[in-house]
Design brief:
mainly beta; 2,3-Dihydroxybiphenyl 1,2-Dioxygenase, domain 1
Length: 94
């Protein structure tokens, strides 16, 4: 015990979005972040995963699922429970 372990980064945190293009445009054009990856999300049909660099070891990611736009906000419930399921825009996806 007594060891002081501190995290120095996180691979990524993923937030749901209903409009990937606008989300990326805001974070790159307004906040000056760099888009580092954009691809289909783990083989889930119609879903996209976009990564923006926070620093050398961390990123913020956005997940677009066509069903996100219709997902309802339920306080205390932030996730579908499966990375391929819809989540309300702005909620933590994974």
């Amino acid at each position: 015990m007594g060891q002081n372990i501190k995290a120095n980064g996180v691979n990524h945190l993923a937030l749901s979005t209903s409009n990937m293009k606008e989300q990326i445009a805001f974070f790159t054009d307004v906040l000056g972040m760099r888009l580092i990856a954009l691809y289909w999300m783990h083989g889930v049909e119609g879903c996209w995963h976009g990564f923006l660099e926070l620093n050398e070891t961390s990123a913020i990611a956005f997940v677009f699922n066509p069903a996100n736009e219709k997902a309802k906000v339920e306080y205390g419930v932030t996730n579908h429970g499966h990375t391929g399921g819809p989540s309300a825009p702005g909620t933590l996806q994974h």
